[in-house]
Amino acid sequence: MDTKKYVDRFRKTIIDYGIPNDQVVIAPYSNGRASGITMFNGINVADYVSCNDQSAKLVSQQVAKDLHVKYKRGIGF
User: Which residues are CB-neighbours of 33 under 8 A, at least 6 positions away?
Assistant: First the structure.
């Protein structure tokens, strides 16, 4: 579980798009075939990273904690 690469990618997206931290929400995602971590910028999806279904919840919680942003329970879990 390499959360550093996810944190770095999401941090770059936040900086590139100028998204305020209070609008960022991190949530795990699964639709039965694919799973990953989704970053929302208020309403829209700003970035998505696929990862193992079993680790998506844990990794997304850690990413939200490291970025100091909100965490929302999963979509599709």
Answer: none
